[in-house]
From TrEMBL:
GO terms for cellular component: cell outer membrane. Pfam families: Plug (PF07715). Belongs to the TonB-dependent receptor family. Residues 1-35 form the signal peptide. The lineage of its organism: Bacteria, Pseudomonadati, Pseudomonadota, Gammaproteobacteria, Pseudomonadales. This is TonB-dependent receptor plug domain-containing protein. InterPro entries: Beta-barrel_TonB_sf, Plug_dom, Plug_dom_sf, TonB-dep_rcpt-like. Keywords: Cell outer membrane, Membrane, Signal, Transmembrane, Transmembrane beta strand, Transport. Residues 61-166 form the TonB-dependent receptor plug domain. It is found in: Cell outer membrane.
Length: 688
């Protein structure tokens, strides 16, 4: 795909990227007349530490995979009101506007279509992804104000968390109750009837600490588009010290509300709203066996239901015939309303996991564990009947970090899985870290990930029906018996601190080979049920692969006192790997954007004032694996500019003005939606 040249004197994407890099280099090296002393600590540019990559607390420089940490400084400076927007700050992530499945589409290296498959999302280590092949960002039941940090594994998390962590893993880690005492309130109002309020109460004494958070928000969404919402949730997290060595961690959450469906394929999903409800419960008992050893047992349950079933109108009106013609066309059936419910389903997840870890500093650190999970889903519109589909799966996992010398570390780990939908499979990772100097690390790694089909992919039978249950039109059909997708990743990374620890650098070059990708093709034979079939979309596996390679990373610096700057970048290329004649697919040269960039700058000023700016750029792209429903799958080049101005009043109050998407550039999404409106918000918060 040839890239367009931007308007305004032919300033190309490559030139724009170069200019940004030169600007950052200049800020880093030259500083300012009020630059910090050389010996002052740079907290913002410290090498991040996280637990997600190996299930053990490790600096990113010692871990076996690339990791990004979005901390509270970045969360606050972004001015974000949605968790999905924060992921724009992760190198290689694409975040786009509303699709027919969600107000947000989040993917890593373009490995997605309208359904966000292969992306594991966890809250405090418990999986919250949906069996419907999407992420319900609206029903996560977590307030941004309660987030401690977000840790993201870039490039295959399956060797740590199993098949759904195929392309990447997002772990939303919330603040502990002991760290959120008292009453906290936050509320905002803004354009397009946007408003929301959040309240939190935290307390505790002795062995018990707890936090109760409630939030409600609503908005009309964007002009000319049905993407409004009215959603609320309530969650409780408590930690109970049962003894000097035993702790019980309890998390409960419930979400409820309405979400408008933004339909770009109106015959399948008209502009209607859907009711959404979800609840989850997590119970974890942890026993500390020593200073550097612990063991836990965790039980987790999640339930979700959605209902968007609606009438498309009378069959005679849809076909443009008279009611008297219907019995002649359809074997004596009378004229009737045709109903559809694309997102009408119920799903349940029960999961139990045990884990033991030994992480003594300077010695071999290791983790062993096992778990079992039951996924259940019921949907007449998805499967063609009201029966529950169930998949039972089992897993065993191990991780190890082995110091060979003071300069060399080997990281290895893997997951062995078996389920009702596939035979035993393995995902694994091996990495070698070399530290020639203090705070400078080179890492060479390889990982192999497998992703089994979900209940949705294995049994999908989408259709329009007569009122007696007979198929009127078959829309999609899964062949079933799908083999796992496979992803191999080779990467070489560097993590370090330069200029007297004033610049943090995280960069990697990589090659990814995706095999056996699930795709769709249009079958125009008459072998499928239905009266109006003019082509059925068939899901299948095999014969399709994608190669992706590129450079991605992050730079963080404190160019002068009170200033914080982070720059995230990804330069990607990809090629389809299949026979066009054999598969019947049309090869698209580039499924990923040449460049995905984000820049976040924050500056503390006098009198308790703080200003910040976020810029996000996404180059032209077409989603990898996207089905062809007769509309363009290409997203046009997009620019987004967010601004935030905040002032602290009397220590307890914070006033903020936020502008999101100030540029208001045209953002055609997977199906060519309309532009994203700029959003103006005024927010006030207080801690008592």
């Amino acid at each position: 795909m040839n890239k367009r040249v931007c308007s305004g004197g032919g300033f190309s994407t490559r030139n724009r990227v170069s200019a940004v890099l030169i600007l950052i280099a200049g800020l880093t090296v030259s500083g300012s007349p009020k630059a910090e002393p050389a010996d002052e600590t740079h907290f913002f540019t410290d090498i991040p530490v996280g637990v997600t990559v190996s299930r053990m607390m490790q600096p990113a420089s010692q871990s076996g995979a690339s990791m990004t940490v979005i901390d509270q400084d970045m969360i606050r400076a972004s001015g974000a009101t949605e968790i999905a927007d924060l992921l724009r700050l992760v190198p290689g992530f694409q975040v786009s506007g509303a699709t027919i499945s969600s107000p947000y589409l989040v993917a890593y290296h373009g490995q997605s279509d309208i359904l966000q498959r292969g992306l594991e999302v966890m809250i405090d280590g418990a999986s919250v992804y949906s069996s419907y092949l999407t992420v319900d960002w609206q029903t996560l039941g977590v307030a941004i104000e309660d987030i401690e940090r977000i840790e993201v594994i870039r490039g295959g998390g399956a060797p740590t968390y199993g098949y759904n962590a195929f392309t990447s893993t997002i772990n939303i880690i919330t603040r502990k109750p002991i760290g959120t005492p008292g009453v906290f309130f936050s509320g905002y109002v803004g354009s397009r009837d946007s408003r929301g309020a959040m309240m939190r109460y935290g307390a505790g004494d002795g062995p018990l600490h707890y936090r109760l958070t409630g939030r409600y928000e609503e908005t009309e969404g964007n002009r000319g588009r049905s993407d409004g919402k009215a959603l609320g949730f309530l969650n409780l997290r408590s930690q109970i010290a049962l003894s000097d060595s035993d702790e019980l961690d309890v998390a409960l959450s419930a979400s409820d509300g309405d979400l408008d469906n933004n339909a770009d394929v109106p015959v399948l999903l008209p502009n209607t709203s859907r009711d959404m409800r979800a609840d989850r419960q997590r119970l974890r008992w942890t026993r500390t066996l020593g200073r550097d050893r612990d063991f836990y047992v965790q039980f987790y349950r999640r339930y979700s239901e959605q209902d968007d079933r609606t009438s498309l109108g009378l069959l005679s009106d849809l076909l443009g015939v008279t009611p008297a013609d219907i019995p002649l066309l359809f074997d004596g059936r009378q004229d009737q309303e045709v109903q559809t419910g694309v997102y009408t389903f119920q799903e349940k997840r029960h999961d139990i996991e045990v884990q033991y870890r030994d992480y003594h500093p300077g010695a071999v650190k290791w983790v062993l564990g096992a778990g079992g999970r039951q996924e259940s889903m019921r949907s007449f519109d998805t499967f063609g009947d009201d029966a529950w589909r169930t998949d039972n799966s089992y897993r065993a996992f191990a991780q190890a970090s082995i110091p060979l010398t003071e300069q060399w570390i080997v990281n290895a780990g893997g997951v062995l899985e078996r389920g009702d939908l596939y035979e035993t499979g393995a995902s694994y990772r091996l990495a070698l870290n070399y530290m020639p100097f203090w705070n400078h690390t080179f890492r060479l790694g390889f990982s192999h990930s497998e992703r089994k089909p979900t209940l949705f992919e294995e049994h999908y039978r989408s259709a329009l029906y007569f009122d007696d249950g007979t198929v009127l039109r078959q829309i999609t059909f899964s062949r079933g018996g799908l083999e796992p997708e496979e992803l191999d990743v080779i990467d070489l990374g560097y993590i370090g601190q330069l200029f007297n620890n004033g610049l943090f650098v995280d960069a990697r070059i990589f090659y990814e080979r995706l095999d056996n990708q699930y795709r769709t093709e249009t079958d125009r034979t008459s072998s499928y049920p239905g009266y109006l079939n003019d082509g059925v979309e068939i899901w299948y596996d095999g014969r399709v692969g994608v190669d992706t390679w590129g450079l991605e990373g992050q730079l963080k610096t404190e160019p002068w006192r009170g200033g914080q700057l982070s720059f995230q970048f990804a330069f990607l290329r990809s090629e389809d790997r299949y026979d066009v004649i054999d598969t019947g697919l049309i090869s698209r040269e580039n499924h990923v954007p040449d460049a995905t960039l984000s820049l976040l700058f924050a500056q503390k000023l006098n009198h308790g004032i703080e200003a910040s700016l976020g810029y996000y750029f996404l180059d032209d792209m077409s989603w990898n694996g996207d089905a062809d429903l007769g509309v363009s799958p290409v997203i046009a080049q997009t620019h987004r500019l967010d601004l935030r101005l905040a002032k602290r009043v009397a220590q307890d109050w914070l006033l903020e003005g936020v502008v999101q998407n100030l540029t208001n550039r045209y953002e055609r999404d997977v199906r060519g939606e309309s532009a994203q409106d700029p959003r103006f918000l005024f927010r006030v918060s207080a801690q008592f």
